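Write out this protein's structure.
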Amino acid sequence: MEYISSDTNVWIDFLTINKMALPFRLPYTYIMNSDAIEDELLNPASLKQNLLSLGLKKVELDLTEYSLAAGYALKYKQLSIYDRIALAIAKNRKITLLTGDGRLRAAAKKEFVTVIGTLGILDRLYAYGHITEEEYDECLNEIKKHNGGEIRLPSAEIEQRLSADFKPYIKGALNLKV
């Protein structure tokens, strides 16, 4: 089981398209700092409990992660405390960071931390056979419908994925049979 350090915005994307449970079909354990869970997963009121019941795991910071997060406050002033904590957890534990936040993604790149977001999760769900092509397209169309509002993803990447030519590429890129 692969662990992934989670930020909150990807969960908002899946909540917006009414597909909160989909990412939990993948063989990943999503983890989030317990303070972030308590402070950031407030709206709607059921979000925190839904994610915990689906399998989101609370974790505490160790001393290295605390120190890294404190250092990131000086290095990446635009990041929130919980963004810095999610990055510190991913960096220290050598795991992937789940986020769609552009500034957090840029910081992760500078820290050599692998990042995945909403579209990457959907790609893996489709490529590994956890959702059908129809479900994949339905999710993308819902994302497209809400993009620019509750969801903020690159429109060109959404359109690219809706293209028939892209689906075999996804399976090939992840070394799967088409």
